[in-house]
Amino acid sequence: MDSPRNQSRREERRAVNASQAFLEDHDLIFQEIDLRNDIGKDAILDLARSGTDAGLSVALQIKGGKKYKRKTGHAIPVDSRLRSIWLNGSFPVFVIVRDVDDGNLYWGSAIQMLESTPADATTLPLSPDTRLTPYGLPQFLE
């Protein structure tokens, strides 16, 4: 029988794999951080190989599974440790959540999400209209 822990781990891997495939398909450079070294960041994303965006990078926190789904969209847990890491890090942090039911990727800026929720909030909501699709990619890159 499949344990909840194994199922959760598989959903997290699906989320990372789907994010990596989508972003690399759109010529972005995805560098996964080994899970043993995960400190609130699952990957570094380089935004361009050339042009004015060359050298710009963001960190990604990637989640997947039913526990991130809400009636009004998606949300991720946050605590004081993550708040500190995301607010004081050297890269802007973006959150990507893979919806377990439809397989879509949703994203949000961790900084904007932190700034728009109370300091004692234990979850950060993602806007339901921020799907990471070829049409939504320009908004993500902006």
What do you see in this structure?
The chain has helices at 4-25, 80-88, 110-115, 137-141; strands at residues 29-32, 43-46, 57-64, 69-70, 73-77, 93-98, 105-109, 123-126. It has 142 residues and is an alpha+beta fold. The strands form 2 sheets. Strands 1-2-3-6-7 form a 5-stranded mixed sheet. Strand 6 (93-98) and strand 7 form a beta hairpin.
What are the main properties of this structure?
single chain; 142 residues; alpha+beta; five-stranded mixed sheet; three-stranded antiparallel sheet; 8 strands
Look at the structure and give the mean pLDDT.
87
Low-confidence stretches: none
Biggest sheet architecture: 5 strands, mixed
Question: What Rg is obtained from the alpha carbons, in whole angstroms?
Answer: 15 Å
Q: How is this fold's topology laid out?
A:
Elements: H1 4-25, E1 29-32, E2 43-46, E3 57-64, E4 69-70, E5 73-77, H2 80-88, E6 93-98, E7 105-109, H3 110-115, E8 123-126, H4 137-141
Parallel strand pairs: 3-6
Antiparallel strand pairs: 1-2, 2-3, 4-5, 5-8, 6-7
